[in-house]
């Protein structure tokens, strides 16, 4: 099994992790009108890059949500960053 | 070049030591210009070229393949062909494919070994039996064949399954589609390539598209590892790499690429003559003519472009297999591999124009592309030749995402996608 690094628990079995979404999407500003195309792009379109990717993951046992950077071909993990602020 | 195949030519070549066979298709260099370029020499790309020539008389066509024919998902799937879907739009699409497959060997003069051995989708509880009845009703209303079987009827068709009352998931019955089956996947690619070649299509291997050339916002050609090629219309049928091509051309897709794994065992004496699928165990299998069990399951849970297997899914799928059919527990695996599949949010394909004028896409088949090869090619050829949707492909346009008309087969038919 591959080990993924949880920012809270450290290295754990890949089966404990849940892929949530690609990182960096911004929800449309609903204080103004949002077109169907913009909603569809936000909800459905993906970058789906081959190579280096930034994704939002959850470590299910501890519920830590974090950004993982990895390579989608070699599956090498390049780093993780917690969303949680230090000390919070 | 390749002549018509028959029992007589086989006998003659057998007596001559098989020294007289000609190549089944040409190996041309790319010309600078075509009417249509099809990117991707898998099943869908080759079928598109074949039907462009056959149905629409468009023969000035190039199929550009970065590797070898059928070396991607066409040669990596578990060869199942079926149309047991829930929504009318899906049945229209996949049943067209089954009907085209039924006559494809004869039409292509190439034996694709389509064996309509039927498929069981097991139901493991009384509530699942009610859902199975709903599925059968939907399929019959949509005009395809389906039957609801009780446990005794399932036992007659596949006695090796686990009918023990204390099984992890006891068998209560199954849905049955008798026209479903398996085919020799390499032969589908080779037969379509030979058919397209005979109609004048240029099939160009080892030719990777490295860029899409656009002029005034319109796609007018592609840069490849074998030079620049231009065309009036470009069709992309590149499965798991659809997003990579989209990035080159500048359009977007609602696609995530995942590895889908499959397994084949050592050859055994015949133990099952149908396809058996258990959604609860997440495993399905059939037996090839050579005796190997061909085993598949669900998608990997980690997005990937790595065309190789891994352990978590292997454990799930094979654990499911030996619960489904405990007598197979000691069977050894021969091979284990993965293909990269293009998964959409609703588990239905995308056929239609891209946001770049002149460039059309056939993608998003996810885990179900092989069964759809003839229909995907038939409908994509219609789109490329006429510039307009065939009635069957229209619901599968990318516009369904903005319009909210999803065809959510992942949820509806409960079939692994």
From TrEMBL, chain A:
It comes from the Bacteria. Pfam families: SoxD (PF04267). One of its GO terms (molecular function) is sarcosine oxidase activity. One of its GO terms (biological process) is tetrahydrofolate metabolic process. Gene3D superfamilies: Folate-binding superfamily. InterPro entries: SoxD, SoxD_sf. This is Sarcosine oxidase subunit delta.
UniProtKB/TrEMBL annotation, chain B:
GO terms for cellular component: cytoplasm. Its EC number is 1.5.3.24. Belongs to the SoxB family. It comes from the Bacteria. The keyword Transcription does not apply. It comes from Antarcticimicrobium luteum. One of its GO terms (biological process) is tetrahydrofolate metabolic process. Its cofactor is FAD; FMN. Residues 36-80 form the Rhodanese domain. It is an enzyme of class 1 (oxidoreductase). This is Sarcosine oxidase subunit beta. The keyword tRNA processing does not apply. It holds the Pfam family DAO. InterPro entries: FAD-dep_OxRdtase, FAD/NAD-bd_sf, Rhodanese-like_dom, SoxB. It catalyses: sarcosine + (6S)-5,6,7,8-tetrahydrofolate + O2 = (6R)-5,10-methylene-5,6,7,8-tetrahydrofolate + glycine + H2O2; sarcosine + O2 + H2O = formaldehyde + glycine + H2O2. Keywords: Cytoplasm, FAD, Flavoprotein, FMN, Nucleotide-binding, Oxidoreductase. It is found in: Cytoplasm. Its main location: cytoplasm. GO terms for molecular function: nucleotide binding; sarcosine oxidase activity.
